[in-house]
Design brief:
Largest sheet: 3 strands, antiparallel
Structural class: mainly alpha
CATH topology: Arc Repressor Mutant, subunit A
CATH class: Mainly Alpha
Helix content: 40-55%
Number of strands: 3
Strand content: 5-15%
CATH architecture: Orthogonal Bundle
Length: 185
């Protein structure tokens, strides 16, 4: 061991600040950053809550979308359109949920190329167990700050989210309405 002083880094001087980046102060960056920070924060808190029930966020999303769909089922292609998952990603998530008995696969009577994912009674029971605390989570971390501004702020926020979602992901509601023909067993 030597008695030499540790190397020091030269601190930048204020006079040598780099030139401003054009557009760096644009409010659009602020809005996008706030949206990203909010989503990441909510997602992290929500994932911790769902982990206590043995579900990942994406498994919960698939289960919830199925349960909220007509007859508790969606075509696999519609699940892909409604989520941020690829076709193979949806297949893997549904496989895990099928293995746990939360979802079943069902062939379509009228189109052999179509497969439905169907929430099972076990999946519905798990959702019934999770939802009270999850709804409290949504109320506490998302809606209360909006309600503080009044009911009209919450309604405007929801309308704005729908407009942006429909613009960015026009097929986000694929399979959520209209006639479906599941196999009857």
């Amino acid at each position: 061991m030597t008695d030499q002083p540790a190397a020091t880094l030269d601190a930048p001087t204020l006079e040598a600040a780099p030139p401003a980046v054009p557009g760096i102060e644009d409010e659009r960056l602020t809005v996008m950053g706030l949206l990203a920070e909010t989503f990441v924060g909510l997602a992290a808190r929500g994932a911790a809550q769902l982990a206590g029930h043995g579900l990942s966020s994406v498994e919960f999303e698939v289960l919830l979308r199925l349960a909220r769909s007509p007859a508790g089922l969606l075509r696999m292609t519609d699940l892909t359109a409604q989520t941020s998952l690829t076709n193979s990603g949806v297949t893997r998530v549904v496989d895990r949920l099928v293995d746990r008995g939360l979802v079943a696969r069902q062939a379509c009577e009228t189109d052999r190329r179509t497969t439905f994912a169907v929430v099972t009674a076990h999946g519905q029971a798990l959702l019934a167990q999770i939802l009270p605390a999850h709804l409290d989570f949504i109320e506490t971390w998302l809606l209360q700050p909006l309600r503080a501004e009044g009911d009209e702020a919450l309604a405007a926020f929801e309308q704005a989210l729908r407009r942006v979602r429909d613009h960015v992901v026009p097929c986000a509601t694929a399979g959520s309405g209209g006639p479906l023909t599941p196999l009857r067993g």
